[in-house]
Design goal:
This protein is mainly β. It has strands at residues 4-6, 23-24, 29-31, 34-39, 45-49, 55-57, 64-67, 80-82, 89-93, 96-101, 104-109, 116-121, 127-132, 136-141, 147-152, 159-162, 168-175, 178-185, 190-198, 205-207, 213-215, 218-225, 229-233, 237-238, 242-245, 254-257, 261-264, 270-277, 282-289, 294-299, 303-307, 314-318, 323-326.
Length: 329
């Protein structure tokens, strides 16, 4: 495996040449008692009402377009997962893992599924990653219902993400104020790379369409070879961090606002990073281009923003359980 671009949180970033003025968005639509689960391949939102079936929602209007194809037994299940084309779906029903695909329905029951807190499909929909509070990740064959591998970790996994084109799974673990990340070959179930003692949390954590790994906020280019391990590492490059004047009660003049979570457009050209801004901790989304340059500062008072796949719309999760949509100017 060669030319895998990994984004690591390893240090400080370049300062802004000119400060950008924050803009505040107002919701174009709002629906109550609705949570965002993800997006379809067409860019629609997959949402879960407080009661009722999982649905597909138009991000521009907020109108429900159709049900997402989960059976009734999945309505109260957690966690759930789906492929963007909604052809494969999975959920945990008690201690039973249920996987639906065009090949049929597979059910697996195992004590090792207890403590599961996350499910994620591989890009081809053939493998399901199941991560667990007990310190391991299981890989399941969606077609046959067979457990392929169990990846043993040194602590609780926080998140996982599949490479878009290669048989690689990245797993993040939080460790105090920092993090720990491992990369695994999903075909063989073998660890291929470890990043220890990262400075800062590995969140946000996801592969971009081009194979870049968004992890914290820097760019780090590695040349990976299954035979010899890691090749030469290039000079890291970072997303521009956001600083602003501190409150008068703080001894420092400027305060750095750390990234809390992130989202990426479908083409990988826009990256949204969530922060809390000003001494009043206003929720905001920093929108970057793929080169790591800050393009917009979007304040979303009362909401946590997710960048939609089209890179133009925002989905806003309200603190009272509402879901809203907006477009930054």
């Amino acid at each position: 495996m060669r030319n895998l671009l990994v984004i690591l949180s390893l240090g400080s970033s370049l300062a802004l040449a000119q400060p950008l003025a924050p803009v505040t968005v107002k919701p174009a639509w709002t629906v109550k008692d609705m949570s965002l689960l993800g997006f379809t391949a067409d860019g629609d939102a997959v949402v879960r009402p407080r009661s009722g079936s999982i649905q597909v929602l138009d991000i521009a209007s907020g109108h429900v377009k159709r049900k997402a194809g989960f059976p009734l037994e999945a309505d109260g299940a957690w966690p759930v997962a789906f492929t963007p084309d909604l052809q494969a779906r999975a959920w945990l029903a008690g201690d039973a893992l249920v996987m639906m695909s065009p090949a049929g329905v597979q059910r697996a029951s195992s004590p090792g599924l207890r403590g599961t807190w996350g499910l994620k499909f591989s890009p081809d929909g053939k493998t399901l990653a199941v991560w667990n509070v007990n310190g391991y990740v299981q890989l399941w064959n969606v077609t046959t219902g067979e457990r392929l591998h169990t990846l043993m970790l040194t602590g609780q996994p926080a998140n996982v993400t599949f490479h878009p084109t290669r048989p690689v799974l990245a797993v993040s673990q939080r460790a105090g104020a920092g993090g720990h990340v491992t990369l695994w070959n999903t075909t063989e179930g073998k660890k291929i790379l470890t990043f220890d003692d990262l400075l800062g949390s590995p969140d946000p954590f996801t592969f971009l369409p081009g194979g870049e790994l968004l992890m914290g906020g820097g760019l780090f280019l590695l040349d990976l070879d299954p035979g010899s391990g890691v090749g030469a590492a290039r000079t890291p490059q970072y997303l521009t961090k956001y600083t602003e004047p501190c409150s008068p009660q703080v001894v420092w003049k400027n305060c750095l606002r750390g990234f809390r979570r992130g989202s990426v457009s479908a083409d990988g050209q826009s990256i949204g990073m969530n922060i809390a801004r000003t001494p009043q901790h206003i929720p905001a989304l920093l929108i970057y281009n793929k080169a790591g340059m800050l393009q917009k500062i979007v304040d979303t008072p009362g909401y946590v923003a997710t960048l939609a796949p089209d890179g133009r719309h925002l989905l806003l999760g309200g603190f009272n359980g509402e879901l809203a949509g907006a477009s930054p100017p």
